[in-house]
Amino acid sequence: MSRLQLCEVAKSEGAEVHLHPINLSPQANAITVLLGATLAGKTSLMRLMAGLDVPTSGRVLVDDVDVTGIPVRKRNVAMVYQQFINYPSLTVYDNIASPLKLRRASDIDAVVRRLAKRLHIDAFLQRFPAELSGGQQQRVALARALAKHASLILLDEPLVNLDFKLREELRDELAQLFSAGQSTVIYATTDPGEALLLGGYTAVLKEGRLLQYGPTVDVFRRPASLDVALAFSDPPLNVVSAQALGDGWKLDQGPVVNLPGLRTMHSQVTLGLRAASLRVEKQQGDVTISGQVQLAEISGADSFVHFQCALGEWVMQKPGVHTFALGESLMFCFDPSDAFVFDSEGGLLSAPLLLHERSAFLGIKN
Amino acid sequence: MKPVNQRAWLLILPVLVCVAFSAIIPLMTVVNYSVQDIISPERRIFVGTEWFIAVMRDPDLHEALWRQIVFSTAVLACEIPLGILLALSMPTHGWRASITLVIVALSLLIPWNVVGTIWQIFGRADIGLMGAVLKFVHIEYNYTGNASHAWLTVLLMDVWHWTPLVALLCYAGLRSIPDAYYQAARIDGASKLDVFRFIQLPKMRGVLIIAVLLRFMDSFMIYTEPFVLTGGGPGNATTFLSQYLTQKAVGQFDLGPAAAFSLIYFLIILLLCFILYNWMLRVGTQTGK
Amino acid sequence: MASRIDLDLAHAYQANPQKDSDYALLPLQISFLAGGAYALLGPSGCGKTTMLNLMSGLIRPSQGSVLFDGVDVTDKSPQERNIAQVFQFPVIYDTMTVAENLAFPLRNRRMKEAEIRKRVEHVAEMLELSAQLKQRASGLTADAKQKISLGRGLVRSDVSAILFDEPLTVIDPHLKWQLRRKLKEVHQELKLTLVYVTHDQVEALTFAQEVVVMARGKALQTGTAEALFEKPAHSFVGHFIGSPGMNFLTGEIADQALIYGDRRLRLSNAQAHSLKGLKHIKLGIRPEYVSVQPEASEDSLPAQVEKVQDLGTSMLLTINCAGQSLRARLPLTQLRIDVGTTVHINILGNRTCFYHNEELVL
Question: Which of B188, B197, B281 to mutate to test the interface with C (most CBs of C within 10 A)?
Answer without folding.
Answer: B188
